[in-house]
Structure of TetR/AcrR family transcriptional regulator:
Amino acid sequence: MPQTTAERPRRNEKSRQAILTAALQLAGEVGYTKLSIEAIAARAGVGKQTIYRWWPSKAAVLFDAVLALSTNDAGETTLPDTGDLEADLRTVLHATVRELNDPGYDRSMRSLTVALLEDEGLAAEYRRNLAQRMHEVKKDRLRSAQLAGHVAEDVDLDAAVEMIFGPLMNRWLTRSGPITPEYADTILTTALNGLRPRG
Amino acid sequence: MPQTTAERPRRNEKSRQAILTAALQLAGEVGYTKLSIEAIAARAGVGKQTIYRWWPSKAAVLFDAVLALSTNDAGETTLPDTGDLEADLRTVLHATVRELNDPGYDRSMRSLTVALLEDEGLAAEYRRNLAQRMHEVKKDRLRSAQLAGHVAEDVDLDAAVEMIFGPLMNRWLTRSGPITPEYADTILTTALNGLRPRG
């Protein structure tokens, strides 16, 4: 049966979604090294050639799958700004804790991390399309707090972002301890107060 | 020619060293996914069976290679303690900066990181044999500073370790910026002072 032109894009979009979903699921099930275009195609119910028409590699498919995931979650591109920096950061960190404890998210992000470590070109694309944007969003919130006098004037905001958001990611990556709201709160308090005794 | 019993261990040790060196070199050259026992054996000039007699997998070989590397470097198991916390941490962080900028170290550590992400059993062994020990060494130095009154009494030392040492590792892992002594100093100052305006 011939397709109308109106049907074709819908069908493409359905295949595209099926491929992205299959890539995420399989990455979680078998890990990045064992992930294959063949298996993604079989799970998505499409031919290998359909995948190769849109993506050059399994890494590229997985990348788009994770990108789609984060775009759904955070249609917003700013962090909450109620004027209370500590409360706002706590909200964001607790959401991150929930995300990292979700098994599907955990496994597909681990697969993506492997892909980024193995493919420098993909890693550069990831930084441009997602990581740098997320960093700037966090930095904007700290800058607003700095202007309001809640963050010291001489604080380097890039370092501050790393200090607040890095430890949770490190603990997740190295599985060195449980990812809990309590740990997030401890990190936040330590970052805000610093290590030195306060006068 | 028959070997004496005294010769055998020496020859074993020489093969073992050749295998570890070959594993590190190849991991740096081709990455973890493409690393193979065959290639390690060929480079080391031993048979595949020699490797399989001592290690169950390529991940295990690479793990021992990196472990040997870190044991050579840090025969010491404490951080410098001159009584000046900031100066001592700066010394250690600058050494880390040099290490992370060494191409051989960079590539083999990236390969190991992939292996740890893909193999949870290996990751657990790595934590037991290396990561936890290094964490405790850093924590000991901060505890000594806390006792000396240079770190506030209520600071959580596990969080403090993450705050000081995590950001360099994150930047290295994600290639989000240059790994420089200046960046290390900024991290250190920010961690010690905290974000809040000081009295």
Notes: The mean pLDDT of chain A is 87. Chain A touches chain B through 53 residues (CB under 8 Å). Residues 74-193 of chain A form a domain with the Tetracycline Repressor; domain 2 fold (CATH 1.10.357.10). Chain A has two domains: 1-57, 74-193.
